[in-house]
Specification:
Elements: H1 17-30, H2 35-57, H3 61-77, H4 86-90, H5 94-98, H6 102-108, H7 115-123, E1 127-129, E2 132-133, H8 143-146, E3 149-151
Antiparallel strand pairs: 1-2, 1-3
Helix pairs in contact: 6-7
């Protein structure tokens, strides 16, 4: 059997007041199920930042190609703008990546009434991207996929 590795790191100071307040606000605003989901998003942001720092330190042709590909990838994911620089990557926050989650996108597009309802519809299999059913609320939606999100099989605010 394969050992499942942890996809996030816990905070160094578990009882830091400001972090707890910020996490509670994120849970309320984006309807996260628990704090480990926030920590997963924070870990992704940290990975992007660390890779950007690595790209800043070395300056040769290969690094320039890697930097361009890295920025294009982040643009496709919708995390930075077209003419972004490494500084924009270093300025990414958990809120930026939370705005690109499928759960948030379904709510922001007005397909459901609340973020919690968006999560429920996704888990129950009512949300499709193109013709593909998606049941993962934390999926990061790319710019191309954003226009193809739809809710099927239910009426918001009413019965089937």
């Amino acid at each position: 059997m394969r050992k499942i590795r942890q996809k996030f790191s816990k905070p160094m100071k578990p009882w830091e007041k400001q972090r707890i307040i910020d996490e509670k606000q994120l849970i309320k605003e984006y309807a996260y199920r628990n704090k480990s989901e926030i920590w997963k998003m924070k870990t992704k942001v940290d990975e992007f930042r660390n890779f950007a720092k690595k790209l800043v330190s070395i300056d040769n042709d290969q690094q320039l190609k890697e930097r361009d590909e890295f920025l294009k990838g982040l643009y496709r994911r919708g995390l930075v703008e077209k003419d972004a620089s490494i500084d924009d990557v270093l300025a990414l926050t958990v809120r930026d990546i939370s705005e690109r989650r499928l759960q948030t996108m379904v709510f922001r597009k007005g397909l459901v009434n609340t973020p919690k309802q968006a999560r429920q519809f996704i888990i129950h299999g009512h949300v499709f991207i193109s013709d593909q059913k998606v049941t993962v609320p934390s999926k990061i939606v790319s710019r191309e996929e954003e226009k193809d999100i739809r809710v099927v099989g239910v009426r918001v605010g009413g019965k089937k």
